[in-house]
Amino acid sequence: MSATLSPMSLTGKVALVTGAARGIGRVTARRLAELGAAVALADVLPEVEEAAGALRDEGHTAVAARFDVADPGAVGAGVTALRNAVGEVGILVSNAAIVANIAPVAKMAHASWERELAINLTGAFNMVQAVIGPMVEQRWGRIVVISSGAAQGGLHNQAAYAASKAGLLGLVKTITLEHARHGISCNAILPGMIETENVRAMPIEIREAAIQQTPARRFGRMEEVAHLVSFLASEEGGFLNGAEINIDGGLRLGGLALGSRRELTQGGRP
Fold first, then answer.
1. Would 37 be classed as within a structural domain?
2. Please, what's the b/e burial string for 150-180 (b: 16 or more CB within 10 A of its CB; e: otherwise)?
3. Which of 96-105, 136-145, 226-235, 257-266 has the lowest mean pLDDT?
């Protein structure tokens, strides 16, 4: 009797993960590869080549491409190259984002605002446009967009980041309305404080305040986000569609405002 694949198996699927050179993207690419998917890793950082090479060294099928998700032409060329290398993309994990634009609304540079929206929001739109057509033809697809808890509660001194992540929620719901009938699911994951390189680099007082405000009293692990992605990418997750899924240890319940040390210690007084 032939063996039956587990519903969580991704054997025969091609998964494209953006922002895969490090952090959540890299860990997610590894998780999908471990479940049998051929993985295509995309990033602007040169480390993406090393990330794909490390997976190949472990016996997985993995390829890499460097391009800017904010550039539609570069996205088209990059996705075509990846498609030629490993096949048609059935799973898209739109994870690429920047988070370094820190300024109050009154002082945020217009160019910085535009660049953050171009990568975090328009970048996801560009990626979806590049892969959605073949998904429709195949009557199967999984799109997972990495948003943020900031989409629901805002983020002090990061209006562009919060706005871009909130915009992703509208994109996800619209994709579901248009394409659920084609066997495609599209969902948003909203991480809270996950122990990525960026979080580890935050000032200690911000890190400690975040942990205290999180009911779980710890940061999340990147592997926990990757496991949620893999469920949404599987057959088992197929009827979950247009959802906003918080993975934050309950942080959203604490009303945390990640401000400066002065604001945290003085209750927001100027």
1. yes
2. bbbbbbbbbbbbbbbbbbbbebbbebbeebe
3. 257-266
